[in-house]
Amino acid sequence: MRISKVDCVNFTNRNQKLVTFKSPVVQETVKKDYAKMSAQNWQAQTINKISPVSFKGNKEENITPVLIFMGPPLVGKGTQAKMVSEKTNFPHISVGAILRKNIEEGTELGKLSKSYVEAGKLIPSDVVIDLIIDRIEQEDCKKGFILDGFPRREVEAEALLKHIENKKEQGVILQPKVINIIAPDDILLQRVAKRALEQKRSDDTPEIAKDRLETYYRETKPVEKIFIDKGAITNIDSCPDGYEMSIEEVMDKVVDVLDIDED
Q1: Alpha-carbon distance 195 to 202, whole Å?
Q2: Nearest partner of 33 among 23, 44, 22, judged by Cα
Q3: What structural domains does the chain harbor?
């Protein structure tokens, strides 16, 4: 089922410039929607209701869709990315899954990654950049691909955009679209506690979870500005008015934003 309206927010005006919102109505809406979010989480700059972003790159010749799922830890971006992969047949490239597989197999990359993961820190960018660029050059990515957990730093975003420019010079157009899923900190921490009980993961302690959130705000959130400047990012609020949406409800919004055809 398709929804008729996308209740998501964008942080740019029509000229893709950050501005301060002034409308009392918008201010009240923002305060209500994000009452539970920390001040560090959201510094409102401009909040505008937006129309669905048409995304039909996979139907146009010589255009390769690059779908990027962003958001804080445990917001559900990996789940949504996987579901979109099933709908589009684009490969789902998860940095976290790749690293966890290497950790389980005890590879050199796994050994390097384990200490960072258990401390709630990000893997060095040079390692991740090489890993991702090599992966997206593979044959199954020619018609489109989905990035989950990359880019997480400004230098990684810049490396990806540089790669996109290089491909353009080769006659290959990679079209990035970023879906940024948001949720309040307290909801995210509750999910960590639940997953720790269900999956018994060593990196799901409350202390590590808080470290991961701090790392996200410090290192990953600034990446949004890069894609805002490119006009390529849409925010989806997964907890509007304090209501925690189901996976399927968030998926409805993602489908509508990306204009994915469903039979």
Answers
A1: 11
A2: 44
A3: 9-93+142-258 (3.40.50.300)
Q: What are the residues whose beta carbons fall under 8 Å from the beta carbon of 46, sequence distance 6 or more?
A: 10, 11, 12, 13, 18, 19, 20, 21
Question: How does DSSP assign 59-110, residue by residue?
Answer: GSTTEEEEEEEE-STTSSHHHHHHHHHHHH---EEEHHHHHHHHHHHT-HHH
Residues 109-164 have pLDDT tens digits of 888 888 887 877 888 999 899 889 989 999 999 999 999 989 999 999 999 999 99
Sign, CA dihedral 76-77-78-79, equals positive
With DSSP H G I counted as helix, E B as strand and the rest as coil, what are the percentages for the chain, rounded to 5? 50, 15, 40
CA proximity to 124, closest of 138, 134, 109, 135: 109
Please tell me the pTM assigned to this model: 0.73
CA distance linking residue 37 with residue 221, whole number of Å = 14
| Model confidence pLDDT, tens digit, residues 156-202 | 999 999 999 999 999 999 999 999 999 999 999 888 888 878 887 77
Query: What is the distance between the alpha carbons of residues 44 and 19, in angstroms, rounded to a whole number?
Result: 9
Tell me, what amino acid is at 180?
A: N
